[in-house]
Amino acid sequence: MEAGRVDFYIGLSLAVSSSLFIGTSFILKKKGLLRLASKGSTRAGQGGYAYLKEWLWWAGLISMGAGEAANFAAYAFAPATLVTPLGALSVLVSAVLSSYFLNERLNLHGKMGCLLCVLGSTVMVVHAPQEEEVASLSAMAEKLKDPGFIVFAACIVGSSLVLIFIVAPRFGQKNVLVYIMICSAIGSLSVSCVKGLGIGIKELVAGTAVLKEPLFWSLLVCLALCVSIQISYLNKALDIFNTSIVTPIYYVFFTTSVIACSAILFKEWLRMNAGAVVGTISGFLTIVLGIFLLHAFKDTTFSWDSMPLYLRKGPRTLPWDPRPYAALHGQDSPVVREVKPPSGGGVKGGLVSRQLKAP
């Protein structure tokens, strides 16, 4: 039990550090590309490769590699149900750093989204499921032979083939869900492969001859195939549809698929009580809401100044502040009207000012 707790915290630390590295990598790459643009170099979008000589771009690439490596290692120590949702923190890190270093404005919706991501991640960490012990490739092989997982994998492969060869040619250019569903379904299998490979690498470091195991190489080939399909269809979705639409929808579908696959393969939800289940689902939904606010309204100009007066902070806007009495027009307030005297009248001075009660 103590060893499992240590592995859990190692996996949690790796998952958080992965998000920090990946979120920072986007900022470093962007800064490098902006420096090249300011020097007049041919931009990457125009077919230029001058970024290969920019050290900031390389720093971003190294940071991305470190983040992916940490994320890969996290699956070997912590449940996939915990590691995958924490990937949302990379979006949060990128959004916060871009507001400081790239002068990209983070509006009120974005700040609320960041806060919700942090709260949801905290709730998920507190209520994270403790999966069954899988310490070797032989134990992983037994899990893969489970009838429930075989049925799940067959459904995933069959539905993916239908989407790829029948649905995508007809509706892929019109509906953003088609490509995203392909990526998400295949992604659930790729995470399972990553989990198995991570366990195998742990055994390899410990001195076990896992390279002679056919399962290790089978998982590696399956992972390469799944990742290739994911990258292909995710690029198609990003090329056709807006990033602010693709990113949150892909996160929701991908994470849901991974959680379902992990629950079926590792039976990690069976030992959780009702409170832990509700907490995990609530944390995930909170992260989803945060990601939605962060992306859906990022181009909307919305700040404290555009809010109603009674919601803004100010010395005279609080409900308990004393305010001078002002009678409303049309009740008891006198109305001053200027009345022009009739021509030839006996009043001098032109205009006569009278105070009349408003009816």
Unreliable parts: 315-322, 324-328, 330-336, 345-359
Q: Could you give the order of strands across the largest sheet? A: 1-2
Strand content: under 5%
What is the helical fraction, as a range of percent? Answer: 55-70%
What is the first-to-last residue Cα distance? Answer: 83 Å
Q: Number of helix segments?
A: 11
Spell the H/E element sequence: HHHHHHHHHHHEE
Mean pLDDT: 77
Rounded to an integer in angstroms, the radius of gyration calculated over CA atoms is 30 Å
**Major sheet details:** 2 strands, antiparallel
Please state the structural category. mainly alpha
How would you sum up the global shape? globular
Number of strands: 2
Give a brief description.
This protein is mainly alpha-helical and 359 residues long.
Which key phrases capture this entry?
359 residues, 11 helices, single chain, mainly alpha, two-stranded antiparallel ribbon, disordered C terminus
Topology of this protein?
Blueprint: H1 2-38, H2 55-77, H3 80-83, H4 88-101, H5 108-126, H6 137-144, H7 147-171, H8 176-205, H9 214-240, H10 243-266, H11 274-296, E1 334-339, E2 352-357
Antiparallel strand pairs: 1-2
